[in-house]
Design brief:
Strand content: 35-45%
Number of domains: 1
Mean pLDDT: 89
Order of helices and strands: EEHEEEEEEEEEEEEEEHHH
Largest sheet: 16 strands, mixed
Length: about 400
């Protein structure tokens, strides 16, 4: 590894937008700068483009096919703004055609702002209720946790819709924010979402992605840092049924020193044609000395006819780091666990269910939102009831 020389990187942030990675095409707000994907591109090769319902081509994104309801307590301001002044608050620049189209087409921006020095006890809940798949719609939201605030924001997506949206997350210095995004769509829904976070100095973000519903869900989650000491924990849980395509793409840009990240995604698959895709990438820039990062993806295959693609990546430009690693596994039930339970009188079907619940348990506990934890446990049980595993 080439020796790096930097006289003093304390507090430095690398601001160059040049990312030498085939996984991250150059960003642009103009859809014309993003060619229509063919499926041969690295960032599109796992996505069944025909099932995107034209989101990547020219399908109009002018539908009003989602109702949005917000439940928020004291210390939280929620606004729907027609102007685009909030767009770009996180520093996000779309790096694919669908996100760029949604950026231009979104008619309004929903802002959720947590006041500085405020600790919000109850979760802020933003529910998107899809009404029809006959029209496609674009959305935009900005979530801001002002300095030294603390809150949890839950994004719920349900019903039938074809949606492309961008969600920006800004975590101010010293703030603590949890964002839980639950994709629990009806079976005919298509959702392409980009969720980007900027984490401030000594701030912490916990982002939880949960995908159960929808015909096709493609979720791009990315994080960059706005100062040293920032921490990001990216958790994910997904359950793909027959014919379902659930794709999660993660990018952590360590562009500041002494930052931390941990990525932990788990998924289960059942039914013929169930397809799960997980792409993880961590970029450690030259200036990012003293960082610590790890990414992990584990998949549990419950029936024949499923496919799980899992690709972890590390791009390291400096050797002056605390730690960096990744892991990826895909497999069936642990026969020893099943044997242990059955030898103690647990019927085989129940034993299998216990193994699946145990597989997801640590991710569910880390969510930190009791209402969401209960809902996830119930959702896992409902998925298992659909197919005899």
């Amino acid at each position: 590894m080439t020796e790096q020389t930097a006289p003093n990187v304390s507090g430095a942030i690398e601001t160059s937008d040049e990312v030498a990675s085939h996984l991250h095409p150059p960003g642009s707000f103009d859809p014309a700068d993003h060619p229509v994907p063919t499926g041969r591109e690295e960032v599109w090769r796992f996505t069944p483009l025909k099932r995107l319902r034209g989101l990547h081509q020219e399908t109009p994104l002018d539908g009003s096919t989602c109702d949005v309801e917000v439940s928020a307590g004291e210390g939280v301001t929620v606004r729907t703004l027609d102007e685009s002044s909030l767009k770009g608050s996180s520093g996000y620049v779309p790096n694919d055609r669908v996100s760029a189209r949604a950026w231009q087409a979104a008619r309004s921006t929903t802002e959720v702002r947590i006041a500085s020095e405020t600790k919000v006890a109850e979760p802020v809940v933003v529910t998107h209720k899809g009404l029809t798949v006959d029209q496609a719609t674009a959305g935009h939201a900005v979530i801001v946790a002002e300095p030294h605030s603390s809150a949890t924001v839950v994004l719920q997506f349900e019903g039938s819709a074809v949606v492309a949206d961008n969600i920006e997350i800004v975590v101010g210095d010293g703030a603590q924010l949890t964002v839980v995004s639950v994709q629990d769509w009806a079976d005919d829904a298509v959702h392409h979402t980009a969720q980007h976070a900027r984490v401030g100095r000594d701030a912490s973000l916990r982002h939880v992605a949960v995908s159960f519903g929808g015909d096709l869900v493609r979720m791009n989650t990315s994080v960059a840092y706005d100062g040293p000491g920032g921490e990001a924990e990216l958790l994910g849980l997904y359950f793909a049924d027959a014919g379902q395509h659930l794709e999660h793409r993660l990018f952590v840009d360590h562009n500041a020193p002494r930052t931390k990240s941990n990525v932990d995604y788990k998924g289960a698959l059942q039914g013929r044609g169930a397809h799960a895709v997980w792409i993880g990438d961590v970029l450690i820039r030259k200036v990012a000395e003293g960082i610590d990062t790890y990414e992990s993806n584990r998949n549990l295959v419950l029936t024949d006819g499923c496919q799980a693609d899992s690709v972890p990546n590390l791009e390291i430009e400096t050797g002056e780091i605390e730690g960096a690693g990744h892991a990826s596994t895909t497999g069936r039930f642990d026969d020893e666990q099943l044997f242990y339970l059955q030898s103690r009188g647990v019927p085989e079907g129940e034993a299998r269910r216990l193994v699946v619940h145990g597989f997801f348990a640590d991710i569910i506990r880390k969510t930190g939102v009791p209402q969401i934890e209960e809902r996830l446990l119930a959702a896992v049980e409902a998925e298992l009831a659909g197919v005899e595993v």
